[in-house]
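Comment thread on ticket #2218

A.B. wrote:
> Attaching the input chain for the structure job we discussed in standup.
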Amino acid sequence: MRQYGVGDVEKMLRLPRSTIRAMASAGFVTPARGPRNTLLFSFQDLIVLRTAQTLASANVPAKRITRSLKELRRQLPEAMPLSGLSISAVGEQVVVRDGAAQRQVESGQYVLDFEGDPVSGSLNVIERAQPAPVATTDWFAQGTALEREDPEAALDAYGKAIAEDAKRLDARINLGRLLHENRRYREAERVYREAIAVCGRDALLLYNFGVLLGDVGRKREAIEAYEAALKADPAMADCHYNLALLYEGLGRPKQAIRHMSEYRRSSRS
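C.D. wrote:
> Ran it. Output below, let me know if you need it in another format.
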């Protein structure tokens, strides 16, 4: 059975490493341990992780997500069927379909489709908003659904989500990240700074801001952002790792060693 490291999951699902580790810590998945105690995820874990992220983005209560995902993980086959596997959440039911068989599990109000290829280890995710019975739009959910196919439309949707609710932190984080991914660094910085001013010093927000500052060569400012993120969440392993690299590059070996040690300790927990 093929296994995937945190870096593989990060690339395939476009989730931050901190989010992947947080979901594992929350018990959504139980990855194996590889060399140096690294996390190793199965293909079934990838499906559960992406489902968890999407349901959370749709504001489904955490307890409900946990119940649904435990049942979903229990039902997933260890080997992918030749016909492929499709998982859909329609209304309040998650539908698992492999070949002609179809099963339902409790879930949230969001529509997801997954298709897997066990040979290549690929995971294709198609997300679409459930048709709303009223004339309201969940702009955040629409943004997450559009990121791959139409990034500009996704940016617009996140902007509308923020316009409706200025404290919509998840929309601000996704907006900044997507701008960053598209090399619109100044706009991304403006979004992150506004988010900090409006929503406070959230750990993931500050971590993403640190990544942006590091990518544009502003290492000392990146260090400040990462240190602030650790004050909000001292167990954020990726902050320690990035700080270790930055301090090493600045010729400060004591700080680099301390943060690398913290990273290894946090990764094992």
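A.B. wrote:
> Thanks. Noting for the ticket: The two ends are 25 Å apart (CA to CA).
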